[in-house]
Amino acid sequence: MNKIEKAPDFELVDTDLKRMKLSELKGSPVILAFFPGAFTSVCSKEMCTFRDSMAKFNKFKAKVVGISVDHPFSLNAFKQQNNLNFTLLSDFNKEVSAKYGGLHEDFAGIKGLRVSKRAVFILDKDGNIAYRWVSENPGIEPNYKEIEDALSKLN
């Protein structure tokens, strides 16, 4: 029997500078997709894959939320450039990333540059963690089929 782990609640700012709490999303599955940085090749590909998978996720009534340590203004430009159809949240103080998947220290060899590790968490409708994937390698994308399978098990 797996121990039920409640996802830590948080409040972050979206690309419209509105505050959003994770607890506001209860009632349906949530995909939290942490990514190192807007406008980087792997992150752009990953977020666009989530965008292109929305029809599959909608089937499970799942909401997708992208989270990075980028400022909300950068995330807004990134969202517009890639026509992203889901919420992006700014973890500019890096607290939520640290609580969940963790942070890369001295990212890309730049001393003091701290960014979110690429990570995906699927939360059930009650806010419990049903799936967790955290990568130490920022160049690796998540297994999208695994994400879809985990979502299908929630329904």
Describe the structure.
The protein has 155 residues and is an alpha+beta fold. It has a single domain (32-154), classed as Glutaredoxin, CATH 3.40.30. The protein contains 5 helices and 9 strands. A 7-stranded mixed β-sheet has the order 2-1-5-4-3-8-9. It has a two-stranded antiparallel ribbon with strand order 6-7. The radius of gyration is 14 Å and the shape is globular. The model has no long low-confidence stretch (mean pLDDT 94).
Descriptors:
155 residues, alpha+beta, Glutaredoxin, two-stranded antiparallel ribbon, 5 helices
Task: Produce the secondary structure layout.
Elements: E1 11-14, E2 19-21, E3 30-34, H1 41-52, H2 54-59, E4 63-68, H3 72-81, E5 87-90, H4 95-99, E6 103-104, E7 115-116, E8 119-123, E9 129-134, H5 144-154
Parallel strand pairs: 3-4, 4-5
Antiparallel strand pairs: 1-2, 1-5, 3-8, 6-7, 8-9
Quick structural overview:
By secondary structure, this protein is of the alpha+beta class. It has five helices and nine strands; from the N terminus they run βββααβαβαββββα. A hairpin with a 5-residue loop joins strand 8 and strand 9 (about 130-135).
- Give the helix level as a range of percent: 25-40%
Radius of gyration: 14 Å
Name the CATH class: Alpha Beta
Largest sheet properties? 7 strands, mixed
Number of domains: 1
